[in-house]
Specification:
Blueprint lengths: L6 E6 L3 H7 L4 H18 L5 E10 L7 H24 L2 E6 L7 H14 L5 E9 L1 H17 L10 H5 L12 E4 L18 E4 L9 H12 L10 H6 L2
Parallel strand pairs: 1-2, 1-5, 2-4, 3-4, 5-6
Helix pairs in contact: 1-2, 2-3, 3-4
């Protein structure tokens, strides 16, 4: 749970292509409708008790897709930030882009940096967009950063523990997700927040992402709130049952 008491929800926004295919439309139109769904969800999240929203926008594996689709996804991030940045900044949203910056087009890098600078002091709501992100890649990058610190004489191997390792992740400083949601009915993590998902509740929803909105998010949060999180321990009922 975030420091302000709000929930951290992470979403694998899945199903844009299948949404379009079912309607006989190009996949690119599915992605564009997905941007509209993101806008609806971000706008409604604070009213549901969510203070941090992390969404999976583009993975390190998505580079394997046709270049026309890759270019479309890049352009959609740019279009979303350009169209919504003033509103996000005005409404107190802090925007952070997770993932590797290497390989991104200069215009994409520029708008990422502009969004982060413009909103860096906002505190009402945090939006993290995982873009050119992979959980395994993030773990490798964190390990490399620590190894480089050791090589420089700034750390010793025996210094490494979970807290220090976590400080090298791209999500450092942000509470881990309370719940991870995947849309479209698929039931996989797909290399998303592998370290951070250790104790997150998983919710799978049978809705394609372009159809998503605050009501679906509220349903996911409601399912989360109905569960009891044990963090490896036992509940009072378990203790009583075992005498």
């Amino acid at each position: 749970m975030s420091r302000d008491g709000g929930l951290h929800v992470a979403i694998i926004m899945d199903g844009n292509g299948r949404w379009a295919k079912r309607r006989g439309l190009p996949r690119t139109l599915g992605h564009r409708e997905g941007v509209k769904a993101l806008r609806r969800t971000v706008e409604g999240a604070p009213d549901i008790g969510v203070s941090t929203l992390t969404v999976f926008g583009f993975s390190t594996e998505n580079w394997r897709r046709p270049m026309t689709e890759v270019s479309e996804l890049m352009n959609l991030l740019k279009a979303y930030v350009e169209s919504d940045l003033d509103r996000l900044a005005r409404e107190g949203v802090k925007v952070t882009i997770l993932g590797r910056r290497t390989g991104l087009r200069p215009d994409i890098l520029e708008i990422i940096e502009r969004a982060e600078r413009r909103t860096e002091n906002n505190t009402r709501f945090r939006l993290q967009v995982a873009f050119n992100y992979g959980g395994q890649a993030d773990l490798v990058d964190a390990a490399r950063k620590f190894a480089e610190a050791v090589a420089r004489g700034e750390a010793r191997p025996e210094d490494l523990d979970e807290q220090l390792f976590e400080s090298h992740l791209s999500t450092a400083g942000v509470p881990t997700p309370d719940v991870i949601v995947r849309t479209s009915g698929e039931r996989r993590i797909s290399n998303f927040l592998l370290w951070e998902c250790a104790y997150a509740e998983l919710v799978f929803q049978d809705v394609y992402w372009p159809d998503y909105g605050p009501d679906h998010l509220a349903a996911a949060v409601g399912e989360f709130r109905s569960r009891e999180r044990r963090y490896g321990g036992v509940t009072t009922d378990d203790v009583l049952a075992t005498g």
